[in-house]
Specification:
The structure is a homodimer of 407-residue chains. With 407 residues, chain A is of the alpha/beta class. In chain A, helix 3 links the parallel strand 3 and strand 4. Chain A is elongated. The two termini of chain A are 13 Å apart. Chain A is 34% helix and 21% strand. Chains A and B meet through helix 8, strand 8, strand 9 and strand 10 of A and helix 8, strand 8, strand 9 and strand 10 of B. The complex binds N-(aminocarbonyl)-beta-alanine (2 copies). Chains A, B: This is Hydantoinase/carbamoylase family amidase.
């Protein structure tokens, strides 16, 4: 069994790097704080006798050997980057649980047939650089390395430059060095369903797909007073028209469909100038790829109408398209069995957030464990999971991993 | 007659201070460039033998004595600050025309019965600090000095600190030192009507009133994926709902009513976080104060509905309420007569932009001259008025001023 005190204190330790005054975490990918947490994680992996490697995209791996030289490794992990002013569990819980699994195997001198490898993926969050799940996406071959290197943040800083700056552009190619047996990831649910149903732990059966993109309207800056309404080409009014539709489109599609505009930037942003250029994002998610494609089609149609009404030029940029995935039965069963054997009350659940597991699904059998998220809240400093719930999920992950690794 | 070459070269000279690469002007009030243009203007006034004073709000005056010691001064001027990436005529044209009027009187040794005073008002634009027409408003007693000193820009910089920093917190009280005979101001129209009607110059009969304010919605940051639509408290969706209505409310009120959102700021502004706090502005203008008050009532009603739909807290802040004014007959006639005598084809027109003349109206008889704005465009680097049109308006202003000053 995992050592609860060490597990909790390790969780608290990681939360200090990039921790905010309000108890959250502001540890954006490739920031100075990301470098610091990576240095810390490297130390922990070395101290746990793992053989460590960093790939050219900054993904960090630590391997514990198995007894069978021909057995494929079981990969377990998540991410240590955070949202802007996000929570201390999102991502980190899965990495620390993987680390604790290794420490526990070491403490108890338990051997497994398959190697167990733990991983910290680069830029899972997708807030500073899009897409989300970027490191796992490149590693799994869903994205092109050079294209992702060239991505820029809102300040124009280039991904590759930042990766080099923090010293985590490793030597290994960003790709699987061999075949993998399975991938397991623990994450907080980030939604309300486990709590609403009074469950201890979630057995994840799949992940919604999503479409992300940005629309820019180009109007004409002009005086907000003497310019008659019918002379105007107001980029912000068009953006507002589309944003209200992004709230409403989901209700016309599916029960689980969600749509969000998280980002907006208006220029010149002066109280008495008609906005000339406005960029904003869309995001839609659903368990069905057809629904996702339809939502994207509709938002672009709304943009076309809004541009026509205001007499604007416009363009859009796709920023992400993650497929909806359903996990392999073997992994779902391993997680379900682990939860059952540990006596946890569980339910099967489809993830509404994206996870690195999305991309791992194309590489090997994949499964996930969810920990309860109080009030379903995340991407917020007040994100909260009790230590009991963290421990239940970490124990489930550990047992499922050892099961799959033949321990 | 005004010396055309000197007038044009002085216009070009001022446009170099804070000039942009694209031929516009970025000379925000109380910025370093504002200091520089003020220093330059001070030199020009001194060179023109004016007796100069700066008041405690930074308004700059230069007086040319009259022949009758009991005659009240005629005030002529406008403003030298600009919008962010605005045009080179807005404001500056009126100040340079006033300066050229003085130079021309000096050149020709023309005496006037009344003193003529020229003025550069502080912060007419209202972009960096609200309200607009701030310096003239304090001077005319429409605003309280200390309240306006305490205003902050979006970075939290305090007005009074900036005024001291650039060295233009003068010694004179910010109020009329005596009674004034009249106030005249030349400005570009900033709207399309003169050009549409093929006119040389505009005789302004009054100025629309306006209401400005800012609304802030407070929602909850949460994950844009696993958070079901009915759990959300999305501050940006509510803002978008209100912004689309700000485009539409004018069409339900009056022929000249306009409504604009020029500014928006969303937090945390991340593609996969539901926006938690959004601030945006409203601005409505109309020749009728009743219409303006009704527009303000309606936008606050829309905000209340939007907040209720999204389950948000919200608040608003009034940033400006300028009354609609109709100019005194004597000044309108003086401008009309000047245009007629100079042989310019003119039309009477109601201003859709705010001007310092709004506040002067409460102090003394007030009038304005408009120069043609090509395409009605302003608050944009591509704002344009031909030198012919600039000269026609400046000549009209000069003749009207000399007429009112008894020259
Ligand atoms: N799990 C998680 O928050 N991932 C970030 C990418 C996304 O789903 O928005
Ligand atoms: N004339 C002018 O642009 N004034 C600025 C204040 C306003 O009318 O918006």
């Amino acid at each position: 069994a995992l050592q609860r005190e060490r597990f909790v204190s390790t969780m608290k330790e990681q939360a200090e790097i990039g921790g905010t005054a309000d108890g959250g975490l502001h540890r954006l990918t490739l920031s100075d704080d990301d470098k610091e947490i990576r240095d810390w994680f490297m130390e922990q992996m070395t101290a746990a006798d793992l053989s460590v490697r960093v790939d050219e995209f900054g993904n960090m791996f630590g391997r514990r050997a198995g007894t069978d030289p021909d057995a494929k490794p079981v990969l377990v992990g998540s991410h240590l980057d955070s949202q802007p002013y996000g929570g201390i569990y999102d991502g980190a819980l899965g990495v620390i649980a993987a680390l604790e699994l290794i420490r526990t195997l070491n403490d108890n001198e338990i051997e497994t047939e398959h190697p167990i490898e733990i991983v910290n993926w680069t830029n899972e969050e997708g807030s500073r650089f899009q897409p989300a799940m970027q490191g796992s996406g490149v590693w799994a071959g869903a994205h092109d390395l050079e294209e992702e290197y060239a991505k820029t943040d809102v300040d124009g800083t280039v991904f590759k430059d930042e990766l080099e700056r923090i010293g985590y552009k490793g030597d290994e190619p960003c790709e699987p060095p061999e075949e993998y047996e399975a991938y397991l990831e623990l994450h907080v649910e980030q939604g309300p369903y486990l709590e609403e149903n009074g469950k201890d732990v979630g057995v994840v059966t799949g992940i919604v797909g999503f479409t992300w993109g940005a629309i820019t309207f180009y109007g004409e800056a002009d005086h907000s007073g003497p310019t008659p309404m019918h002379y105007r080409q107001d980029a912000l009014v068009a953006a507002a028209d589309v944003i209200t539709q992004i709230r409403r489109i989901p209700s016309t599609l599916g029960e689980r469909t969600v749509g969000t505009t998280g980002y907006i930037d208006a220029k010149p942003n002066s109280i008495n100038i008609i906005p000339e250029e406005v960029t904003f994002t869309w995001g839609f998610r659903d368990p069905s790829d057809d629904v996702i494609d339809e939502a994207r089609r509709r938002v672009l149609e709304e943009a076309e109408w809004a541009a026509e009404r205001e007499g604007l030029e416009w363009e859009y940029e796709d920023r992400m398209r993650a497929p909806a995935v359903e996990f392999a039965e073997g992994c779902v069963d391993a997680v379900q069995t682990a939860a059952d054997e540990l006596g946890y009350d569980s339910m099967q659940i489809f993830s509404g957030a994206g996870h690195d597991a999305t991309h791992m699904h194309s590489i090997c059998d994949t499964g996930m464990v969810f920990a309860v998220s109080e009030n379903g809240k995340s991407h917020n400093e007040s994100e909260y999971t009790s230590w009991d719930d963290c421990y239940a999920a970490a124990s489930t992950l550990a047992n499922a991993a050892v099961d799959l690794a033949g321990g």
